[in-house]
Write a structure and sequence with these properties.
Elements lengths: L13 H15 L5 H20 L6
Helix pairs in contact: 1-2
C-alpha cells in the first residue's frame, strides 16, 4: 500500500489495518525505510481511529 492510497473517509476495521501493519513489517524484514515509516505512521493513525470508532462508552 502506498501512503497515498488511503482514501479519506474510508472505514476499515482495526483488524484489517492491523493485518496491513503486520504485512508491512514482514515485507520490510523489520527495518523501515523513510517511505515505509511514513506508511507505517499513516496505518497506525488509521488503526487508532478504527479502535476509537469501535469503543462504546459505558453508562
Amino acid at each position: 500500500m502506498s501512503p497515498h492510497s488511503v482514501i479519506p473517509g474510508s472505514v476499515r476495521s482495526a483488524a484489517e489495518v492491523n493485518e496491513e501493519i503486520r504485512a508491512l513489517w514482514r515485507r520490510t524484514g523489520g527495518t523501515l525505510s523513510a517511505e515505509d515509516r511514513v506508511e507505517y505512521e499513516l496505518l497506525v493513525v488509521e488503526w487508532a481511529a478504527a479502535i476509537r470508532g469501535g469503543v462504546v462508552t459505558a453508562a
